[in-house]
């Protein structure tokens, strides 16, 4: 399935942990989100088996259980290597779907991808995941006959190449759109991070036309019992909204959420999302501060590793600070403050609004901008210019003094240069503000 979507049906859950009994609550919820009915589960506490993840005997017992229950799939709570995938495929009844945690999550992402960029990225990530596993289970003789009869492996490789080409076109189009918006006086700000970190709640807190109240009862940030399905589907929506930050016009984009512990090459598949963050004037890397310190730091390391040469400041936003005491919050600040390319660390509660004004101030400080002190004749032409200035930047200290109008204008550097040219053409005077 090129789309990466899962088929649904009945499933047997398999889980292993080295040092503790497996907790299957989350993997069951993920299976439910992918429309699988879990009809049985088998768990094991032991060191990882190189051949199957679980022990060989446990794997055989699971295969027998699948046959007895006539299950459609095995859902494995963890990552299966291509070799393990091939071993399972030989063991399971023909036609049984084998989904490890990453393949299951990517299937849910495929169902929830709302726009073309998200769809392309999810499909690319899914095919990158499938390719080494297809190679593992494909007979070498088929590869030798590929030039005559075709090969599923070569088909997937060709599809991956086409997806790269289409994604580059999407990324180029989006980059041109961002540049056009900059010329119009808008400042792109991207909100990035992992699923369930509170990105959409932060968007609602910052945007001009949204509010946290719009989220309603049952949203993940407002109700801890919200279904995993809701959290995953909501975070796949790539949404852009206008916001006003101390007079500056900002376009906030809530990007597709990353997934915990995805391999590097799969994370890299989400290039359009990463490009949007890297090309933003300010990137907000949102993490759930209530997660353990090590997880907070690791998720930020993964996010930062994929962002090459970001245009603007990267601000770490420790969300859900209301769930932590001062000591715990300080520990998380210390764990991320020294990460490369982090320009600042701020703690907020998107739900309660704590720290939001400080975040707004920091975003404003990070926006590229210049300012002018302007003096123009008091005329209709000046009023027209003021209307333009209000639409493209921030007008402050406006005074009418007889035949003249004075004010300060702040905006993006390119917009300020356009304003300077208009003022001088109108016979006004202008000087750079301190």
TrEMBL record:
A single GO cellular-component term on record: cytoplasm
Any Pfam family hit: MMR_HSR1
Span of domain Hflx-type G: 187-371
InterPro entries per UniProt: G_HFLX_dom (IPR030394), GTP-bd (IPR006073), GTPase_HflX (IPR016496), GTPase_HflX_N (IPR025121), GTPase_HflX_N_sf (IPR042108), P-loop_NTPase (IPR027417)
Region (Disordered) residue spans: 1-23
Binding site for GTP: 193-200, 254-257, 319-322
Binding-site residues for Mg(2+), renumbered to this chain: 200, 235
PROSITE patterns per the UniProt record, alphabetical: G_HFLX (PS51705)
Assigned keywords, A-Z: Cytoplasm, GTP-binding, Magnesium, Metal-binding, Nucleotide-binding
Cofactor(s) listed: Mg(2+)
Cellular localization per UniProt: Cytoplasm
Keyword Ribonucleoprotein: no
A molecular-function term among this protein's GO annotations: GTPase activity
Complex formation: Monomer. Associates with the 50S ribosomal subunit.
Its job: GTPase that associates with the 50S ribosomal subunit and may have a role during protein synthesis or ribosome biogenesis.
Protein family according to the UniProt entry: Belongs to the TRAFAC class OBG-HflX-like GTPase superfamily. HflX GTPase family.
The protein's name in its UniProt record: GTPase HflX
Gene: hflX
């Amino acid at each position: 399935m090129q789309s990466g979507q899962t088929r649904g049906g009945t499933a047997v859950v398999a889980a292993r942990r080295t040092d503790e009994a497996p907790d299957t609550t989350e993997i069951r919820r993920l299976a439910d989100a992918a429309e699988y009915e879990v009809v049985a589960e088998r768990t094991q506490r032991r060191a990882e088996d190189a051949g199957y993840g679980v022990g060989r005997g446990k794997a055989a017992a699971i295969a027998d259980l699948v046959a007895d229950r006539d299950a459609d799939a095995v859902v494995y709570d963890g990552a299966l290597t291509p070799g393990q995938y091939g071993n399972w495929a030989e063991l399971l009844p023909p036609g049984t779907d084998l989904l490890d945690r990453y393949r299951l999550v990517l299937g849910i992402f495929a169902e929830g991808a709302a726009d073309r960029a998200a769809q392309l990225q999810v499909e690319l990530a899914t095919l990158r995941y499938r390719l080494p596993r297809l190679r593992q289970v494909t007979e070498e003789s088929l590869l030798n006959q590929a030039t005559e009869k075709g090969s599923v492996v070569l088909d997937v490789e060709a599809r991956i190449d086409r997806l790269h080409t289409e994604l580059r076109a999407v990324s180029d189009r989006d980059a041109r759109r961002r540049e056009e918006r900059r010329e119009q006086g808008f400042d792109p700000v991207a909100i990035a991070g992992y699923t369930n970190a509170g990105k959409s709640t932060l968007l609602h807190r910052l945007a001009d036309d949204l509010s946290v109240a719009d989220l309603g009862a049952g949203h993940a940030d407002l109700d801890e019992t919200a279904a995993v399905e809701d959290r995953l589907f909501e975070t796949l929506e790539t949404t852009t909204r206008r916001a006003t930050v101390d007079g500056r016009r900002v376009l906030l984009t809530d990007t597709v959420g990353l997934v915990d512990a995805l391999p590097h090459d799969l994370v890299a598949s989400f290039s359009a999302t990463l490009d949007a963050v890297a090309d933003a004037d300010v990137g907000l890397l949102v993490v759930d501060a209530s997660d353990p310190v090590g997880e907070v730091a690791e998720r930020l390391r993964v996010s930062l590793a994929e962002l090459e040469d970001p245009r603007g400041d990267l601000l770490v936003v420790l969300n859900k600070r209301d769930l932590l005491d001062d000591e715990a919050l300080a520990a998380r600040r210390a764990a991320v403050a020294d990460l490369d390319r982090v320009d600042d660390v701020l703690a907020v509660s998107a739900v309660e609004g704590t720290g939001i004004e400080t975040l707004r101030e920091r975003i404003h400080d990070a926006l590229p901008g210049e300012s002018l002190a302007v003096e123009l004749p008091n005329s209709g032409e000046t009023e027209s210019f003021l209307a333009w200035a209000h639409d493209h930047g921030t007008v402050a200290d406006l005074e009418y003094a007889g035949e003249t109008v004075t004010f300060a204008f702040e905006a993006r550097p390119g917009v300020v240069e356009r304003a300077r040219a208009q003022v001088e053409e109108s016979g006004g005077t202008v000087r750079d503000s301190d």
